[in-house]
Amino acid sequence: MLVSAVAYRLGRRFGLNEEQLANQAESPAHAGGPTVRRLATWRVGDLVDRAWPYVVSPRAPLRDLVAALAPGTRPTFAVVESGRLLGLVSTGDIARAVQLADCRRFP
User: Fold this and answer.
1) Residue 80's domain spans which residues?
2) Is residue 58 a contact partner of residue 79, using CB atoms and an 8 Å limit?
3) Contact (Cβ atoms closer than 8 angstroms) between residue 95 and residue 87
4) What is the tens place of the pLDDT at every residue in 2-37?
């Protein structure tokens, strides 16, 4: 116990780093603090894009979705009927449907 007390007293003027940081905000170990606080207070509704350009009817043919694809984009289409979201269709879903069409015919 005596060794611990002496080591504590002598070591107080030395730190692990050559230079101590002025406060927590400068510490890389605490850099995520503000982000964590934002994530705790923001809601999904704060991020919703209500003017989403990729909205389709459930009766829309797949060729309309493909025609709406701009080169280099991978949008997700919101399937909406009477103002109600029914689901989502991604470009991956379209690609799988095309692959399946090669194996079998759709009605």
Assistant:
1) 2-103
2) yes
3) no
4) 777 767 666 666 666 566 667 766 676 666 677 778
For the record, the structure tokens of 82 come out as 């009477």
Into how many domains does the chain fold? Answer: 1
The per-residue pLDDT for range 34-53, each reduced to its tens digit, is: 777 888 888 888 888 888 88
Sequence-distant (6+) residues with CB within 8 A of 65 are 56, 77, 89, 94
CA atoms within 13 A on the CB side of 8: 5
Please choose, from the candidates 74, 80, 75, 73, the residue with its C-alpha nearest in 3D space to the C-alpha of residue 55.
Answer: 80
What CATH number is given to the structural domain containing 28? Answer: 3.10.580
Per DSSP, the residues of the chain read -HHHHHHHHHHTT--SSSS--SSGGG-GGGTTHHHHHHHHH--GGGT--TT-S-EE-TT--HHHHHHHPPTT---EEEEEETTEEEEEEEHHHHHHHHHHHHHS---
